[in-house]
């Protein structure tokens, strides 16, 4: 499993070894390939990724600092369990931030962003594949929220919303893997993108609120 991930992921040349290791491990977690009960060992990861233990250790420590992983003496590192309280808190913050994000995005429809938005709408419209892998479906949906944050023009919003989206993604993957949650269709996301494309802030905010409340109600039903 870990070896397959290492073969598939390619990092930009400007990444440090620590950043490369961090991204490889984080991608495994977000794909649901590392469960809460799984322990990761520094040496095993170093062997698979073809690195020394130093960048692996630094990456694992960074993930622990961010409360994504925790260190268990004599056992290794494991993914931190996500409580329903944490999920609800994250969704509440997303509701507050992302309604403002789409409002700002509607005001920042530069030619560059509109071109990227049109490309995203086109790709999203043609990507309805019932056999699409779970992590790809979730990553694609999350990429829309992250793009809109970038389009807001506020760097702090981008930095703030990213880890929050990652946490809800982890929780969603676990629920879907357990059969307790089904992926939503893409109609709502596409409607949000089109509303932003038209510069209709009120409509975009209403749709974003609906999208996040659907997520919240899904978790509340568990």
Question: What order do the helices and strands come in, and which of them pair?
Answer:
Layout: H1 2-8, H2 17-30, H3 42-49, H4 53-65, E1 69-72, E2 76-79, H5 84-106, H6 111-125, H7 134-151, H8 155-177, H9 187-198, H10 201-220
Antiparallel strand pairs: 1-2
Helix pairs in contact: 2-4, 3-4, 5-7, 5-8, 5-9, 5-10, 6-9, 7-8, 9-10
Summary keywords:
2 domains; mainly alpha; Arc Repressor Mutant, subunit A; 222 residues; disordered N terminus; 2 strands; two-stranded antiparallel sheet; Four Helix Bundle (Hemerythrin (Met), subunit A); single chain; 69% helix
Written account of the structure:
The chain folds into two domains: 2-79, Arc Repressor Mutant, subunit A, CATH 1.10.10.10; 84-220, GntR ligand-binding domain-like (Four Helix Bundle (Hemerythrin (Met), subunit A)), CATH 1.20.120. Helix content is 69%, strand content 4%. It has helices spanning 2-8, 17-30, 42-49, 53-65, 84-106, 111-125, 134-151, 155-177, 187-198, 201-220, and strands at residues 69-72, 76-79. Strands 1-2 form a two-stranded antiparallel ribbon.
